[in-house]
Amino acid sequence: MSVKVSIAMVSILRDGLANGLGVKYQRLADAVEKGIADGVIEPGCKLPPHRLLADSLGITIGTVSRAYGELERVGLVVARVGDGTYIRQRGMERPQDVGFRNVSNEPPFVLDMSRNQPIPGREAAFLSQSLQALANDPQALQQLTGYTAESGSARHRTAGAQWLRHQEFAPSAEQIICVNGGQHGLLCALMGLLKAGDTLVTEHLTYPGLIGVARQLGIKLIGVAMDDEGVLPSALEDICRHHRVTALYCTPTIQNPTAAVMSVPRREAIAGVCRQHNLLIFEDEAHAVLARQRPLPLSHFAPERSVLIGSLSKAVSAGLRVGYLHAPQPLIGRLSAAVRGTCWMASPLTLEVASLWIENGMADQLLNEQISEVSRRKMLVEKSLEGLVYKTHPHSPHFWIEVPEPWRASQIAAELKENNYLIATAEAFAVGHAAVPQFIRASVCNSVGDDRLLLQGFEALMGTLKETV
Predict the structure, then answer these.
(1) Given phi > 0 = left and psi -120 to 50 = alpha, else beta, which region is 284?
(2) Is residue 1 pLDDT above 50, yes or no?
(3) Which domain holds residue 27?
(4) Which of 30, 163, 177, 234 is the one with CA 20 to 30 A from 284?
């Protein structure tokens, strides 16, 4: 007899917990594995929610999270963010289940419009100059070969504060943690300040890298409704009234994927809701630096509870893997411990190069060139999108394009892929149970140096969408 309800599943797991061997989480994982092998737990069955199982068995949520994590690690289950954990069956995975990739696995002749990445510029030439200068400075090189404090050296933290500075928002070096890129900063922020079983609210459509990290750490995500400015304060307030929420993650400037930008009143309202409900704020500024005239960050409006995540990846160089966290002083120790636990310290060599570029103005030059090239490319292809409904921001590196009914974004993506063009669909960004809008994201950021290829890609996109109208 197959298991289809939580009551029967709980019975199997209770027996495994009582009679199994090893630590508790391993006993639970072994019980599920045995049930699958014996055929009493079928593919597609949903495992009980973490809290329900923990309460039923008298164990901690963390134990359940570790058991489910072990099952996912060995490939027996699929964790679908906002929906639960299921026994794996062929064809049930959503796109984010296969992992978020920073590079394409496709052949080089494919034009990849699916990813936002810095457009190649003079960073290679600048890197050559900087490394040659370092090679001629033995004392500087000697300092870079040893250990540094987990938060980074004083000079590197000062450069990070300079990079994150914007208008009246002036970070102090003592509130900066150096990390190996924005993704590593996000991992350290969640590891250091949240725990398995905590609930994190984020935009209904959010950065896929967050989805992957939350799943790995056993953090529950709830998607919050959005409008053209991003997170709706009333929707956030409603979630806080009905759930035990620990933190909010959002991208207030050039949101990924909708390209929304919060107004100052919206930022003040979001800060007010978070203060009222005692939420931490994780603020992602990955693309914000591309908008010189952007509003002040949320960290300015709620400095006592905001962790700002910034990096050089989208504006200067992705390969350097340099990022910075800015946080309230009481949280610096926990964030530093997370850095120590993941990599001991961020790489001093890449931080040195980044610091040199920030200090001598090279980083600003590359940023200005990136802004200019994004604008030029968007102007070049925008005519190809006439007649389509889309959203963007003047400094956003991508377009957020609506797919006409009755077609689905996945169909458009599949047809374009057959013709060697890649785009991203809303499904990869979706959190929770709400209906996924039929939109696609097409980026002008790729390594092609030939405008004709870029135009061909957007004309192919337009042609495919026109066929659906």
Answers:
(1) beta
(2) no
(3) 6-93
(4) 234
